[in-house]
Amino acid sequence: MGSKVDKLKSFIHKYFKKVFDGLTVISTYGSDSDHPYQMDWVDGDGHKMFERNTWGRFWVYDCEMYDQLKYGAKIMSLSYEEFQELLIDYLNERYSNEFGSKQPLKDIGNEYCDDY
Q1: Residue 115 has what pLDDT?
Q2: Of 109, 57, 4, whose CA–CA distance to 12 is shortest?
Q3: Under 8 Å CB-to-CB from 81, ≥6 apart: which residues?
Q4: Per residue, what are the HEC states of the chain?
Q5: Single pTM value for the model
Q6: How does pLDDT run across 18-64, given as a tens digit for each residue?
Q7: What does the alpha-carbon distance between residue 61 and residue 66 come to, in Å, rounded to a whole number?
Q8: Among 37, 48, 50, 60, who pairs with 31 as Cys (CB 3.0-4.6 Å)?
Q9: Residue 59 and residue 104: Cα distance in Å, rounded?
């Protein structure tokens, strides 16, 4: 039997997976081993929802999509810091091949829709 933390992580990651499964990842910058490329997550119509820059920041472009990600954390009464930590952890795990081990995500840039 897994710990409560493992169960919580698994539960929240299911919400994240639902959102990211519906998006396409596009590399927008050339890559090398020291500077992984920039990535965009786009919806079926080609609208940019999120971006990962070379420095490891995950930028939010679509607040409604970001709210979908926050939903699971809110119903579990997690703090905003816990939500962000879980999201960064999820993205680093899911996209480890794309990010590379030298440039994981470090933080989230969401100034336009930060109303947890």
Answers
A1: 63
A2: 4
A3: none
A4: CCCHHHHHHHHHHHHHHHHHHCCEEEECCCCCCCCCCCEEEECCCCCEEEEECCCCEEEECCHHHHHHHHHHHHHCCCCHHHHHHHHHHHHHHHCHHHHCCCCCCCEEECHHHCCC
A5: 0.85
A6: 999 999 999 876 655 555 568 899 999 999 999 998 888 999 999 99
A7: 8
A8: 37
A9: 14
